[in-house]
Amino acid sequence: MGNKIFYGIIAAIIVAFIAIFVVMNNNSSEPDQLSDSGYYPYTDMEPEALSGPTIDALDNEDYHYNQTPAEVAGAIESGDGQYVYFWSPTCPHCLEATPLLVDAFEQADEDLIQLNVLEYEEPWNTYELEATPTLIYFEDGEEVERMTGNPGDVESYESFIAATSGE
Protein backbone atom coordinates (compact mmCIF):
# COMPACT_ATOMS: atom_id res chain seq x y z
CA MET A 1 0.00 0.00 0.00
CA GLY A 2 2.86 2.39 0.88
CA ASN A 3 4.54 1.87 -2.50
CA LYS A 4 1.30 2.73 -4.35
CA ILE A 5 1.03 6.07 -2.53
CA PHE A 6 4.70 6.83 -3.15
CA TYR A 7 4.40 6.07 -6.89
CA GLY A 8 1.16 8.02 -7.07
CA ILE A 9 2.85 11.11 -5.60
CA ILE A 10 5.80 10.76 -8.01
CA ALA A 11 3.39 10.40 -10.95
CA ALA A 12 1.45 13.53 -9.84
CA ILE A 13 4.68 15.53 -9.61
CA ILE A 14 5.76 14.43 -13.09
CA VAL A 15 2.35 15.32 -14.55
CA ALA A 16 2.52 18.75 -12.85
CA PHE A 17 5.98 19.44 -14.32
CA ILE A 18 4.82 18.40 -17.78
CA ALA A 19 1.75 20.64 -17.51
CA ILE A 20 3.87 23.61 -16.40
CA PHE A 21 6.31 23.02 -19.27
CA VAL A 22 3.49 22.85 -21.84
CA VAL A 23 1.86 26.05 -20.56
CA MET A 24 5.15 27.96 -20.50
CA ASN A 25 6.13 26.68 -23.94
CA ASN A 26 2.79 27.72 -25.47
CA ASN A 27 2.97 31.24 -23.99
CA SER A 28 6.50 31.87 -25.24
CA SER A 29 5.52 31.11 -28.83
CA GLU A 30 2.79 33.74 -28.83
CA PRO A 31 4.11 37.04 -30.26
CA ASP A 32 2.25 39.21 -27.75
CA GLN A 33 3.75 37.19 -24.88
CA LEU A 34 7.34 38.17 -25.78
CA SER A 35 7.04 41.63 -24.30
CA ASP A 36 5.15 43.34 -21.53
CA SER A 37 3.66 45.78 -24.03
CA GLY A 38 2.53 43.11 -26.50
CA TYR A 39 4.41 44.95 -29.28
CA TYR A 40 5.39 42.59 -32.13
CA PRO A 41 6.10 44.14 -35.56
CA TYR A 42 7.82 41.09 -37.07
CA THR A 43 4.60 39.74 -38.55
CA ASP A 44 6.41 37.78 -41.25
CA MET A 45 8.53 35.85 -38.71
CA GLU A 46 7.76 33.29 -36.06
CA PRO A 47 8.64 34.45 -32.53
CA GLU A 48 11.10 31.57 -32.14
CA ALA A 49 13.13 32.98 -35.05
CA LEU A 50 13.87 36.30 -33.32
CA SER A 51 17.27 36.86 -31.76
CA GLY A 52 17.59 37.62 -28.05
CA PRO A 53 18.66 41.27 -28.52
CA THR A 54 15.58 41.93 -30.68
CA ILE A 55 13.30 40.38 -28.07
CA ASP A 56 14.97 42.54 -25.42
CA ALA A 57 14.19 45.68 -27.49
CA LEU A 58 10.46 44.93 -27.89
CA ASP A 59 9.52 46.88 -24.76
CA ASN A 60 11.67 49.89 -25.65
CA GLU A 61 9.28 52.50 -27.09
CA ASP A 62 12.10 54.04 -29.14
CA TYR A 63 11.91 50.91 -31.31
CA HIS A 64 8.14 50.88 -31.83
CA TYR A 65 8.36 52.12 -35.44
CA ASN A 66 9.59 48.81 -36.89
CA GLN A 67 8.20 47.36 -40.06
CA THR A 68 8.97 44.36 -42.24
CA PRO A 69 11.04 44.74 -45.42
CA ALA A 70 7.90 44.38 -47.55
CA GLU A 71 6.16 47.16 -45.61
CA VAL A 72 9.23 49.39 -45.90
CA ALA A 73 9.44 48.79 -49.66
CA GLY A 74 5.75 49.61 -50.01
CA ALA A 75 6.15 52.86 -48.07
CA ILE A 76 9.16 53.86 -50.18
CA GLU A 77 7.36 53.07 -53.44
CA SER A 78 4.25 54.99 -52.37
CA GLY A 79 5.81 58.16 -53.74
CA ASP A 80 5.46 60.12 -50.53
CA GLY A 81 8.56 61.27 -48.73
CA GLN A 82 9.64 58.58 -46.28
CA TYR A 83 12.38 58.33 -43.66
CA VAL A 84 13.73 54.84 -42.98
CA TYR A 85 16.04 54.13 -40.06
CA PHE A 86 18.16 51.00 -40.42
CA TRP A 87 19.36 49.75 -37.04
CA SER A 88 20.47 46.68 -35.11
CA PRO A 89 19.87 45.88 -31.43
CA THR A 90 23.50 44.69 -31.20
CA CYS A 91 24.90 48.00 -32.49
CA PRO A 92 26.10 50.22 -29.61
CA HIS A 93 25.95 53.29 -31.86
CA CYS A 94 22.29 52.55 -32.63
CA LEU A 95 21.47 52.20 -28.94
CA GLU A 96 22.94 55.67 -28.32
CA ALA A 97 21.53 57.31 -31.47
CA THR A 98 17.97 55.98 -31.48
CA PRO A 99 16.64 58.07 -28.55
CA LEU A 100 18.12 61.18 -30.18
CA LEU A 101 16.57 60.29 -33.53
CA VAL A 102 13.14 59.55 -32.07
CA ASP A 103 13.21 62.83 -30.14
CA ALA A 104 14.07 64.75 -33.33
CA PHE A 105 11.25 63.07 -35.27
CA GLU A 106 8.74 63.76 -32.52
CA GLN A 107 9.76 67.43 -32.44
CA ALA A 108 9.60 67.70 -36.24
CA ASP A 109 6.27 65.81 -36.36
CA GLU A 110 7.55 63.62 -39.20
CA ASP A 111 6.87 59.93 -39.80
CA LEU A 112 9.63 57.41 -39.21
CA ILE A 113 9.95 53.76 -40.18
CA GLN A 114 12.56 51.50 -38.61
CA LEU A 115 14.01 48.33 -40.08
CA ASN A 116 15.94 45.93 -37.86
CA VAL A 117 18.82 44.65 -40.00
CA LEU A 118 19.78 42.02 -37.44
CA GLU A 119 16.57 40.17 -38.24
CA TYR A 120 16.45 41.08 -41.91
CA GLU A 121 19.75 40.81 -43.78
CA GLU A 122 18.59 41.60 -47.33
CA PRO A 123 18.35 45.39 -46.72
CA TRP A 124 22.16 45.53 -46.44
CA ASN A 125 22.36 44.83 -50.18
CA THR A 126 19.04 46.30 -51.27
CA TYR A 127 19.81 49.74 -49.80
CA GLU A 128 23.62 49.47 -50.03
CA LEU A 129 24.09 49.92 -46.29
CA GLU A 130 27.64 50.20 -45.02
CA ALA A 131 26.96 50.53 -41.29
CA THR A 132 24.30 51.07 -38.68
CA PRO A 133 22.70 53.30 -37.75
CA THR A 134 21.73 54.64 -41.17
CA LEU A 135 18.87 57.06 -41.80
CA ILE A 136 17.72 57.41 -45.42
CA TYR A 137 15.16 59.81 -46.83
CA PHE A 138 13.28 58.51 -49.90
CA GLU A 139 11.03 60.48 -52.23
CA ASP A 140 9.16 59.15 -55.26
CA GLY A 141 10.70 55.74 -54.59
CA GLU A 142 14.28 57.03 -54.84
CA GLU A 143 16.91 57.76 -52.23
CA VAL A 144 17.39 61.51 -51.75
CA GLU A 145 19.82 61.68 -48.83
CA ARG A 146 21.36 59.47 -46.15
CA MET A 147 23.01 59.93 -42.79
CA THR A 148 25.22 57.13 -41.46
CA GLY A 149 26.49 56.83 -37.90
CA ASN A 150 25.56 58.51 -34.65
CA PRO A 151 25.78 62.31 -34.91
CA GLY A 152 25.67 62.52 -31.11
CA ASP A 153 22.91 65.11 -30.76
CA VAL A 154 19.26 65.77 -31.56
CA GLU A 155 20.10 68.96 -33.47
CA SER A 156 21.99 67.06 -36.18
CA TYR A 157 18.97 64.87 -36.82
CA GLU A 158 16.71 67.93 -36.79
CA SER A 159 18.95 69.59 -39.40
CA PHE A 160 18.81 66.47 -41.58
CA ILE A 161 15.01 66.36 -41.32
CA ALA A 162 14.67 70.08 -42.10
CA ALA A 163 17.01 69.84 -45.10
CA THR A 164 15.25 66.84 -46.61
CA SER A 165 11.65 67.76 -45.86
CA GLY A 166 12.02 71.20 -47.40
CA GLU A 167 11.40 73.16 -44.21
From TrEMBL:
Keywords in alphabetical order: Membrane, Transmembrane, Transmembrane helix
Coiled-coil ranges from the UniProt annotation: none
InterPro entries per UniProt: Thioredoxin-like_sf (IPR036249), Thioredoxin_domain (IPR013766)
Domain Thioredoxin, chain residue ranges per copy: 49-166
Source species taxonomy: Bacteria, Bacillati, Bacillota, Bacilli, Bacillales
Classification via SUPFAM superfamilies: Thioredoxin-like (SSF52833)
Keyword Acetylation: no
Name this polypeptide is given: Thioredoxin
Ranges that cross the membrane: 6-24
